[in-house]
Every structure is written in C-alpha cells, then in structure tokens.
Amino acid sequence: MDNHKNYFEHPGKAIGAGAGFEYVMSVALNSYGGYKEGMIRCITSREGDVQVAGYIDRSELHKVKEHSPNHFEIGDRLVIKNESEIIDQICGMDREFIGLEDPDIWIDEKTGMMHVYFTIPLRSRNHQADLIHLGHAVGKDMNSLEMTMPVLMSGTEGISGKEVSIAPINKNKFRYNLVESASEGKEFWYSTIRVAIAEDMGMPWKFGDTLFNPEEHSIPWIAGHASPGPLLPDTFMDVGEGRRLGILNGREANHKEGDKIKYGMFSVGLFIYDFENGKIDWVSPEPFIQDSQAKTITFASQFVEKGRGSGVLYAHVDDSFVRAYTINADLIKSLLPD
C-alpha cells in the first residue's frame, strides 16, 4: 500500500549530519519560542551494523537552532549540570555509560520550567544485563538544565523505559505516559510499549502495564519492535474524549542469518491512545510514513502543529539525517477506524 498520498515529504534535509557527526537522530524541539530551538542525539562512534543486533552507539546531545523554516543547524553540546555526579551514582564500576540518547522536551505550563527526558544506557562490562534508565533534567531553559535522578530505573529482569511519550493529565490528576520497554519472547527480545505512571513529572514514576507487545499481534510492519512517538493535540484531530491520535514507530520482525539476528524495516504508523485509562484502542494495520530514501529506518520524534488540522512531523532516516513531513488531518481520516 502506498501511503505517500497521505503526507507530503519535504525535499532535502531538515537537519543534516555534519559538525563532525556521521549519524544524527531523535530531534526534540522547544515549544516555548515557536519550536525554533531544541536538541538532537549525535553519534560519536558506532561499533557494528545498525541492521544487526549487538551494535554499539556512543552518543552526545547537541543543541539545534532554526536556520530557515523547517531547517536547523547543529550547535554546541548540551551542558547539563550535575550530569557526571548522577551518572557516577547510578553506573558503578561494572557498567559503562555510553552517552545520553533520544531526548524529549516537556514544558510545565504552570511554572514555565523545562523538563528534558533522555535515555541513559549503561553497558555491562562483565556480561550482566545492560541497564537502560529514563533520565531527567530540569531548568528554566536549555542553558540552565540540571540533572536529577532518573524518573524510571531499569531492573535487571529486563524492565526498562525510554523514548517517552508524554500524555495529557487525566481526570485523576496524574499521567499515563508511554515508554518503549522490552520483553523476552520465545525466540527474540521485543521492544514493547509500556505505561509509566507519573504523579509528578520531576519525581520518580512507576512502571505500569505493557500495552503492546509485537509478539502478541499479527501486524507485519510492527512485528519486531514498537516505540511510542508523540501524541498529537486534539486541535489537530479530535478522536474522542480522553483519547489522542499518536505516532507509533514500528519495526518489522527480526530474523536470523546464521548466528546473527537481523532487524527489519522501521516505519512510522498511527495509534489511538486512551490516556484516561492507559489503554491503546487501535494500531494502524499498515505504516503511515516510510521515507523515500530509507533503507532501514524512518523514525519520528517531534510533531509541530502549524494550524488546526495541519502540522509538520520530523523523523530521522537511517540515522543519517532528519526529514520534515507535512501531515493533514483530512488526509489521515481515511486511515482511521470508523
């Protein structure tokens, strides 16, 4: 199925690799100030093949700033106070910290404070389980961020949280946020979508139920890995009280080639989320966006509303650059359930 008619792929790159980095991904933009600045994950070194399980990326978060409409330039490394102290506290001697990953920015409208969430990967030095925490920093802007303890701490049994999707506050005054987590299946590990219960956005959250495990569904485009993307505002599209239309990143099933586990294609799809009750009501049976140049990855991380029913979605392509796509509610309606 060709879904390209349902969105407009902007020519060129919204953010290109450069400034000494071959790979860039996961842009997050600051809503205060009109999404004209933000941050992005830059890969400082890569060991292995991104299409084969076991590769290792070492990362830094860098600032980005708008240079022209829908085009940004990569700037200085993001400085977060107290970073080394927190990392030393949670890392220990038997694990290696390989850099902050995959940022998300949330602004507390009551206080005006900026909260940034990011992945903290700790790689085992002695063949124990790697740990993946959901880190947190807070400040009045990107120049005054200070790291706190992670809001979600990974357990050695495989529970982890990253790639957060911030949900609206529900009627009970807390949030059923969504995170990418993991589950060991019969043959492979699967990336899953799990609830993270947040009563305070700056304090520790609680792991909730797993809402989507690819192993338990027969949806080819998302048969191997699932990761929640941004939830779209109801001013873009209203899908019912207490619900949001969301962006979902999914990867086709893993497969074995000899002793290697190879990954499938990553694409962008849609889902409907009941944020009042922490339930996924629907996942699109087909992907929504697959970049024309993608060989293995189209992965969305940021949505910017441009007017009622219209907006721009940013996704990285093969970890090499970020593309912008215009999406329109009227064109998406035909893809949704009745």
Characterise this structure.
This protein is mainly beta. It contains two helices and 24 strands. It has helices spanning 83-91, 329-332, and strands spanning 7-9, 15-16, 23-29, 37-47, 56-68, 71-77, 95-97, 101-107, 114-124, 131-139, 146-147, 162-165, 175-184, 189-198, 206-212, 225-231, 243-251, 255-257, 260-262, 266-274, 279-283, 298-307, 310-317, 321-328. The strands form six sheets. Strands 1, 2, 22, 23 and 24 form a five-stranded antiparallel beta sheet that branches. Strands 7, 8, 9, 10 and 11 form a five-stranded antiparallel beta sheet that branches. 43% of the residues are buried. The mean pLDDT is 93.
Q: How is this structure best summarized?
A:
Helices cover 4% and strands 50% of the residues. It contains 2 helices and 24 strands.
Strand content: over 45%
Could you tell me the mean pLDDT?
Answer: 93
Q: Oligomeric form of this entry?
A: single chain
> What is the molecular shape?
globular
Strand tally is 24
Measured distance between first and last alpha carbons: 19 Å
* Rg over alpha carbons: 19 Å
Count of separate DSSP helical elements: 2
Order of helices and strands: EEEEEEHEEEEEEEEEEEEEEEEEEH
The assigned structural class equals: mainly beta
Protein name: Glycosidase
